[in-house]
């Protein structure tokens, strides 16, 4: 995508670790439906649970913990309450919002149809642009990423995305917001 890191030689995401309620169902979804090879399994000592790693490409892994006493997810707090276009996507600070997998642009629509054929409920394709709404009604040269969303068996929000253009200096133009600008609902 462009800019070099002058501090550290990062080579990608080693792994992102999520928590699941049913490891067998998680293996079936990520290996069976999405085709990610299960590359490492760990039984945590003292009956504390399991930690499994799936190869998600490029030398990176998506990992899951299964803890026997993990609390249930709280939609809208631990993860978004649903998918874009259906609900407000806000969730708690420090929680994971979604995992986006890079897919090749030439195969993007093929993968969309393939997931639907496997019975996965996907959002419509979203063409992200710099318009005030952030979403284009149809693909055009200003679209910078195409994506669609779906959920895993535990409700984790997943996305397939492909970049459609190269970024330049004009793509970094917003002033970062601060904690003082947050408005937290009463009672949370």
Automatic annotation (TrEMBL):
Supply the alphabetized keyword list. Answer: Dioxygenase, Lyase, Oxidoreductase
Q: Which residues cross the membrane?
A: none
- A Pfam family that this protein carries is Glyoxalase
Show the InterPro entries listed in the entry. Glyas_Bleomycin-R_OHBP_Dase (IPR029068), Glyas_Fos-R_dOase_dom (IPR004360), GlyoxalaseI/FosfomycinResist (IPR050383), VOC_core (IPR037523)
Listed name of the protein: Catechol 2,3-dioxygenase-like lactoylglutathione lyase family enzyme
**What molecular function terms (GO) are annotated for this protein?**
dioxygenase activity; lyase activity
VOC domain span: 12-163
Q: Which PROSITE patterns match?
A: VOC (PS51819)
Top-level taxon in the UniProt lineage: Bacteria
The taxonomic lineage of its organism, from the top, reads: Bacteria, Bacillati, Actinomycetota, Actinomycetes, Pseudonocardiales
Reply yes or no: does the keyword Oxidoreductase apply: yes
Indicate whether Oxidoreductase appears among the record's keywords.
yes
């Amino acid at each position: 995508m462009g800019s070099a890191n002058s501090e550290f030689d990062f080579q990608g995401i080693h792994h992102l670790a999520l928590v699941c309620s049913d490891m067998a169902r998680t293996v079936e979804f990520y290996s069976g439906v999405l085709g990610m090879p299960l590359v490492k399994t760990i039984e945590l000592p003292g009956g504390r649970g399991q930690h499994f790693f799936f190869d998600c490409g490029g030398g990176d892994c998506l990992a899951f913990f299964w803890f026997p006493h993990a609390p249930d997810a709280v939609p809208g707090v631990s993860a978004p309450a649903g998918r874009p276009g259906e609900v407000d996507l806000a969730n708690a600070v420090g929680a994971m919002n979604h995992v986006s997998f890079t897919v090749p642009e030439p195969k993007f629509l093929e993968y969309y149809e393939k997931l639907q054929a496997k019975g996965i409920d996907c959002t419509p394709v979203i063409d992200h642009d710099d318009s005030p709404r952030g979403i284009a009604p149809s693909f055009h040269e200003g679209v910078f990423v195409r994506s669609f969303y779906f959920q895993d068996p535990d409700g984790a929000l997943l996305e397939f995305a492909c970049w459609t253009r190269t970024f330049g200096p004009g793509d970094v133009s917003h002033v970062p917001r601060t904690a003082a600008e947050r408005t937290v609902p009463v009672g949370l």
